[in-house]
What we know:
44% of the residues lie in helices and 19% in strands. It is built from 10 helices and 8 strands. The chain has helices at residues 6-20, 27-34, 38-50, 67-78, 81-97, 139-146, 153-157, 171-184, 221-224, 233-249; strands at 54-56, 63-65, 100-107, 110-117, 132-134, 187-190, 197-205, 211-220. Helix 2 (27-34) packs across helix 3. The longest helix is centred in the middle third of the chain and has 17 residues, at 81-97. Residues 68-252 form the IclR-ED domain.
Amino acid sequence: MAGPVQSIERAAAILRLLAGGSRRLGLGEVASSLGLAKGTAHGILRTLQHVDFVEQDPATGKYQLGAALLHLGTSYLDVNELRSRSINWADALAARSGEAVRLGTPLEGRVLVIHHVFRPDDTLQTLDVGALLPLHASSLGKVLLAFGATPVEPLLDDEPEAYTRHTLVHPEELNRALGEIRDLGWGAEVQEMSMGEAGIAAPIRGQGGLVVGAIGVSGAVERICDTKGRPQPALITVLREAARAISRDLGAARW
């Protein structure tokens, strides 16, 4: 039986590296991160660029995932039951809340955004479908951690990254926050991933009541929270109603 093809393994490693980062990477960064010679990494990147799986910024020369690869991911997500059953409810939630709505599931220690509804106004916004968010610094991720959709232990073994001064990086703080989320039935992040931004999220349950994803509302902190930095009760209400509706559609009897 033939063994694995090394060039394909290396190409996959490069794609995973680009998908896991929050910024574009240069040739040297890609090569050093994966232990590849620059010539080898450059050849693979050029091939991936040729088929539009990777794009190169003409100004900086750095690389990011390309449109063709993101299109393939979106095609897969179109048949994902969670996404397909959530689309109408997510659209309605964006309309009712006046804010952006994202749907997330756990993937390899991060949150994969599988659906994103823009805030219903004329502001310039970037589509987040396919983005990977940190578990500990996003409302979607904290909900998934709190309700056991993804294990918390690996995150606590190594101190998580601090994105802002508000990010929860100490195990005691994070565990306490997850306990509060379980008690409340929803979670929030206030300027923990990005200054000036806030979000709230609620769990989505499938058959048997298991949490299979999370739905969240996000936007400017002054719109999501009151003057004391607490999420607006009206937003929490419409969010939880949407999460319950999706859960019922997925067969969660208790909802």
